[in-house]
Each structure stands twice: as C-alpha cells, then as structure tokens.
Amino acid sequence: MKKTNAMRMLDKEKIGYKYIEYSVGDDVSGENVANKLNEDEAYVFKTLVTVSNTNENFVFVVAVKDELDLKKCAKIAGVKKLEMIHVKDLLKTTGYIRGGCSPIGMKTKFKTFIDESCENKEYIYVSGGKIGAQIKIAPEDLIKICDITVANIKKE
C-alpha cells in the first residue's frame, strides 16, 4: 500500500486512524462509499472545495447524506458568495482528484469548516486521499490536525 499525503500527515503527527480500501466502479458518490463501507451515511463525510467572489478557496466537510448550504457557508467564511470549484481546477488547487479529495494533506492550507453533525460521534470517515480509500478517525483529531472550525453548514 502506497501512503497518501493524508496518511503521511497523520503518521507524522502521531494521530490514530484506520485506513480502509474498497473497490470502486464509476460511482464515486458519497452514498456509494457509505454503502461499500457498510456504514451509516451520517458517519461518512465528503470534502467540498469552494471558491469565493474574492477568489479565495474554502473547504467544507459534511456528511454524504447532507447538502452544503452555500449561503450559510459564505456567511461563516466572511464572504459575499461561494460556489463549488470547477472539477478541472480541483487537482491543481488541492493536489487531490474528485472522489479522492481529503481535508487532510492538501497541497495548500485553506480555511476549513466541518458540519456540527460530527460532534458527539466516536468516529467519522473522510477520504484517504485517493479514490477507493477512506480514513476512519475521531472527529476531534481531524479538527485538531487540520485546524477546522465546527459550524452548521448543511441545508436544513
């Protein structure tokens, strides 16, 4: 197994995690990932990268069952407007591809927010940094290593 940037960063900081690989077809959706892991969708989180009207990037981590509320996110990030980054810009911006984007180990450190639904969970899953790889980690460890702000960022 070749270690990803996310795994190397966790190892360097001596953060405990479990690395899980699974087979993937063409469907890299979060719902499919949760199904492959045989896990509740409330515990599997997706990493979404946005760009603001001021051309700043912000990262949001939300359960795969939920939808990001871009208006709430813009307010929390302190900008007028946010939109999802174009998929063609994802690799050059983060170092990760669609379906393998992790909040851990991006090539540039962006202000990152995680939905408050992660609180009071013993563990959550986030991408391990490539398609077909997930990291099972305590939310508080993820928040600490990535300097993440907890906020209400999902659509109600």
From TrEMBL:
<keyword id="KW-0456">Lyase</keyword>
<dbReference type="InterPro" id="IPR036754">
    <property type="entry name" value="YbaK/aa-tRNA-synt-asso_dom_sf"/>
</dbReference>
<keyword id="KW-0648">Protein biosynthesis</keyword>
<protein>
    <recommendedName>
        <fullName>Cys-tRNA(Pro)/Cys-tRNA(Cys) deacylase</fullName>
        <ecNumber>4.2.-.-</ecNumber>
    </recommendedName>
</protein>
<feature type="domain" description="YbaK/aminoacyl-tRNA synthetase-associated">
    <location>
        <begin position="31"/>
        <end position="144"/>
    </location>
</feature>
<dbReference type="InterPro" id="IPR007214">
    <property type="entry name" value="YbaK/aa-tRNA-synth-assoc-dom"/>
</dbReference>
<comment type="similarity">
    <text>Belongs to the prolyl-tRNA editing family. YbaK/EbsC subfamily.</text>
</comment>
<dbReference type="InterPro" id="IPR004369">
    <property type="entry name" value="Prolyl-tRNA_editing_YbaK/EbsC"/>
</dbReference>
<dbReference type="Pfam" id="PF04073">
    <property type="entry name" value="tRNA_edit"/>
</dbReference>
